[in-house]
Amino acid sequence: MVPNLPTVTFATKEKIESRKFNISTTQIAPSHHEEEDQLAFEQRLYEESLKVLDEGQVLVGTIVQKDKDELLVDVGGKSEGVLPFRELSLAIEPKGLKVGDTLEVMVHRIDEMDGTLFLSERRARALKTWEKVMEAHERDEVIEATVTQVVKGGVLVDLGMRGFVPASQIRRQPVGNLDELINQKLRLKVIDLDHKRHRVVLSQRLVLEEEMQAKKQELLDTMEIGQIRTGLVVRLADFGAFVDLGGIDGLIHNSELSYARIKHPSEVVKIGDEVQVEIMKFDQDAKKVSLSLKHALPDPWDEHAEKLVEGRKLQAQIVKVTPNYLLVELVPGILAMVPKGEFDPAGHYSAGQEIEVTLNTINQATRRITASIEHVADIPPEEIEVLVSDGILGTIGDALGAPEPESAPELAPEPEPAPEPEEISSPQPTE
Question: What percent of the chain shows pLDDT beyond 90?
Answer without folding.
Answer: 23
